[in-house]
Amino acid sequence: MAFQKAAGLRFHDPGLLNLAFVHRSLSNEAGHQTNNERLEFLGDSIVGAVAATLLYERFAGRPEGELAKIKSVVVSEEALSGIARELQIDSLLLLGKGEDQTGGRTKPALLADAFEALVGACYLDCGYKSAFTFAGRFIGAEISRVAENRHHQDYKSLLQEFCQRRYRNYPCYQVDKRAGPEHERFFWISVTVNGTAYGPGMGRSKKAAEQEAARLAWEAVGGNI
To answer: Does residue 142 sit in the same domain as residue 167?
Structure first.
């Protein structure tokens, strides 16, 4: 009930709400017959429809290609997992022991799927209008962030496109240092752009450290073009 109140939802069937948080790792380990994958399949389509509708209404003069680019950001794994964390879905997930011990509650793909499953459950329980209103609150906020350039940038892609266009080559990433036990590993990675090194960027994964290094390089060489 506390989650429903905080999320602005009211389910007639609590079992459907509970199912939205059941990951397949639990069904595999504990013998559950069902998990949230079918709800996620349904919710994925609804989230896409919500984003497309809001973009169509909000940006009447924008061409289809531009709307598609914005939509790809607002329904991305990163954006939806951020919404899931905002709703504290990470603390409600029902995971198998192995998945939980290996950081399942922090995995963006798993969190994004759970949010979509929640939207699917809302649709089945309360109808499309309620599902649209619920998902639209969050998707609309993501659209505003993108429109105002306040969303997370994929700096690796931006830097790569810049290097190809300006220098006809690719940025080169190098691990400078790694430290910590396996479950709390930190990486320091630098990136070389046309012979000049930038960074290092630090992160809990190579991917995160590369993004941080790319951000530093992008802001130095490409951010103002």
So the answer is: no
> Please, are residues 163 and 169 in contact by the beta-carbon 8 Å criterion?
yes
Q: Is the domain of 59 the same as that of 85?
A: yes
Residue 116's domain is classified under what CATH number?
1.10.1520.10
Catalytic residues, by residue number, are: 44, 116
Secondary structure of 42-55 as H, E, C letters: HHHHHHHHHHHHHH
Q: Which residues pair with 34 in a beta bridge?
A: none
Last residue of one domain, picked from the residues 119, 147, 175: 147
The CA-based angle 126-130-134, given to 5 degrees, is 125
Taking only the tens of pLDDT, the chain with its 225 residues reads 788 888 889 999 999 999 999 998 887 766 667 899 999 999 999 999 999 999 999 999 889 988 988 898 899 888 898 899 999 999 999 998 888 888 888 888 899 999 999 999 999 999 999 999 999 999 999 999 887 765 556 788 888 888 988 899 999 999 999 987 776 788 999 999 999 999 998 887 888 889 889 988 988 886 544
3-state secondary structure (DSSP) of residue 172: strand
